[in-house]
Amino acid sequence: MEAFYTIQGEGAHTGRAAYFIRLGGCDVGCHWCDVKESWDASVHPKLSIDSLVAGALQYPGRMAVITGGEPLMHDLTDLTASLQAAGFRTNIETSGVCQVVTGSWDWICFSPKKFKKPNPAIYTQADELKVIIYNQSDFAFAESFAPHLRPDCKLFLQTEWSRSNEMLPRIVEYVKDHPQWQISLQTHKYLDIP
């Protein structure tokens, strides 16, 4: 769908320079999704892996974040191999719904959604759990995954942007009471950067 160089605004790598590759295609269908235009893969041009890597190499940062849509709808083996061969660390954000995790990853952000159950195979692979908090019941949803993850998996709660005024104070109190969790903010939106 698009590729761009910016600052990672969320999760464990917040504040780091990153080249984002947003792939088209998603069948999860979150009603609050901020990139619904990514859902239909057929409306976006197909680019070669070489052109994606060449685009990333134009910038000094060496972290590539593959996102979507749902990026694991695609076989990412060749893309990640090419990025790593060019010196990039490969990160992905996925809902974990796909049956297979393809690609070679330095960091996997697992961001489950209520609308479609994840494949439990993602649990042992996740380096980071990031749950979007849209309403109060999402705290229990987040907690339902924590026991299944590796002990070193980082746990993040992030408010859905349009509900920040209401939910962020609740997240703050929740993290104070449950310090195994951290707050993830969409800092790129606060800073007004893409």
UniProtKB/TrEMBL annotation:
<keyword id="KW-0479">Metal-binding</keyword>
<keyword id="KW-0411">Iron-sulfur</keyword>
<feature type="binding site">
    <location>
        <position position="67"/>
    </location>
    <ligand>
        <name>substrate</name>
    </ligand>
</feature>
<comment type="similarity">
    <text>Belongs to the radical SAM superfamily. 7-carboxy-7-deazaguanine synthase family.</text>
</comment>
<feature type="domain" description="Radical SAM core">
    <location>
        <begin position="13"/>
        <end position="194"/>
    </location>
</feature>
<feature type="binding site">
    <location>
        <begin position="111"/>
        <end position="113"/>
    </location>
    <ligand>
        <name>S-adenosyl-L-methionine</name>
    </ligand>
</feature>
<comment type="function">
    <text>Catalyzes the complex heterocyclic radical-mediated conversion of 6-carboxy-5,6,7,8-tetrahydropterin (CPH4) to 7-carboxy-7-deazaguanine (CDG), a step common to the biosynthetic pathways of all 7-deazapurine-containing compounds.</text>
</comment>
<keyword id="KW-0949">S-adenosyl-L-methionine</keyword>
<dbReference type="InterPro" id="IPR007197">
    <property type="entry name" value="rSAM"/>
</dbReference>
<feature type="binding site">
    <location>
        <begin position="7"/>
        <end position="9"/>
    </location>
    <ligand>
        <name>substrate</name>
    </ligand>
</feature>
<comment type="subunit">
    <text>Homodimer.</text>
</comment>
<feature type="binding site">
    <location>
        <begin position="32"/>
        <end position="34"/>
    </location>
    <ligand>
        <name>S-adenosyl-L-methionine</name>
    </ligand>
</feature>
<dbReference type="GO" id="GO:1904047">
    <property type="term" value="F:S-adenosyl-L-methionine binding"/>
</dbReference>
<dbReference type="InterPro" id="IPR058240">
    <property type="entry name" value="rSAM_sf"/>
</dbReference>
<dbReference type="GO" id="GO:0008616">
    <property type="term" value="P:tRNA queuosine(34) biosynthetic process"/>
</dbReference>
<keyword id="KW-0460">Magnesium</keyword>
<keyword id="KW-0004">4Fe-4S</keyword>
<dbReference type="GO" id="GO:0016840">
    <property type="term" value="F:carbon-nitrogen lyase activity"/>
</dbReference>
<feature type="binding site">
    <location>
        <position position="22"/>
    </location>
    <ligand>
        <name>substrate</name>
    </ligand>
</feature>
<feature type="binding site">
    <location>
        <position position="26"/>
    </location>
    <ligand>
        <name>[4Fe-4S] cluster</name>
    </ligand>
</feature>
<dbReference type="GO" id="GO:0000287">
    <property type="term" value="F:magnesium ion binding"/>
</dbReference>
<dbReference type="InterPro" id="IPR013785">
    <property type="entry name" value="Aldolase_TIM"/>
</dbReference>
<dbReference type="GO" id="GO:0051539">
    <property type="term" value="F:4 iron, 4 sulfur cluster binding"/>
</dbReference>
<dbReference type="InterPro" id="IPR024924">
    <property type="entry name" value="7-CO-7-deazaguanine_synth-like"/>
</dbReference>
<keyword id="KW-0456">Lyase</keyword>
<feature type="binding site">
    <location>
        <position position="194"/>
    </location>
    <ligand>
        <name>substrate</name>
    </ligand>
</feature>
<feature type="binding site">
    <location>
        <position position="30"/>
    </location>
    <ligand>
        <name>[4Fe-4S] cluster</name>
    </ligand>
</feature>
<feature type="binding site">
    <location>
        <position position="69"/>
    </location>
    <ligand>
        <name>S-adenosyl-L-methionine</name>
    </ligand>
</feature>
<protein>
    <recommendedName>
        <fullName>7-carboxy-7-deazaguanine synthase</fullName>
        <ecNumber>4.3.99.3</ecNumber>
    </recommendedName>
</protein>
<keyword id="KW-0408">Iron</keyword>
<dbReference type="Pfam" id="PF04055">
    <property type="entry name" value="Radical_SAM"/>
</dbReference>
<keyword id="KW-0671">Queuosine biosynthesis</keyword>
<comment type="pathway">
    <text>Purine metabolism; 7-cyano-7-deazaguanine biosynthesis.</text>
</comment>
<feature type="binding site">
    <location>
        <position position="33"/>
    </location>
    <ligand>
        <name>[4Fe-4S] cluster</name>
    </ligand>
</feature>
